[in-house]
Automatic annotation (TrEMBL):
GO terms for molecular function: ATP binding; ATP hydrolysis activity; transmembrane transporter activity. GO terms for cellular component: membrane protein complex; plasma membrane. Residues 5-222 form the ABC transporter domain. This is Macrolide ABC transporter ATP-binding protein. It comes from Paenibacillus oryzisoli. The keyword Iron does not apply. Keywords: ATP-binding, Nucleotide-binding, Transport.
Amino acid sequence: MTALIQIEHVSKFYQMGGETIRALDDISLNIAHGEFVAIMGPSGSGKSTLMNIIGCLDVSDEGVYTLDGKQIHAMRDTQLAEIRNQKIGFVFQSFNLLPRLSAYENVELPLIYRGLTRKQREPLVLQALEAVDLLDRRKHMPSELSGGQQQRVAIARTLAGDPAIILADEPTGALDSKTGIEIMDIFTRLNDQGRTIILITHDHAVAQQANRIVRFRDGRLVH
């Protein structure tokens, strides 16, 4: 497998009360096409900061980040937004569904922002909902769905955009263990289909389902 993500000597600083905090301290990490990587570490260890940089939501203060052959760290905001739109999908612990939209409409919304016509959107939305076994719940509102079903809608929303990379930040954190296993089964299946999965978790059982575990402490890579 060739490297999809190359992070070389990346550091990120924040100013707090006149003190410089190193959120990331000289991180080097490669992630190959089709890998399933779990990122673990205590709160404040830098894992979410790294996820934001990988997802083009933020840029490093030092070092080089190369994504699929393109140097990301030097890009403008508009270029970063284009990369996010084309290559990266996000799944969060809190689902981030719009309560007044149905499951179908929540999945459809990013495609509307992309400028796709209704005829272009419909098969993508239906295919994404089918991939997470929620086609029969497509007209339901988020309040009518369980937590696990809401997370599956969030995953379908990401899948509809056909991202090469899925970044999942504690995707099972708000779910019971049985439902968490069901969600992880979906991620495993997506990885088997060739998608690169990068997942933040505090749960060792969840992390064990990845191909590789990366551990952080105090802004540094420790394993």
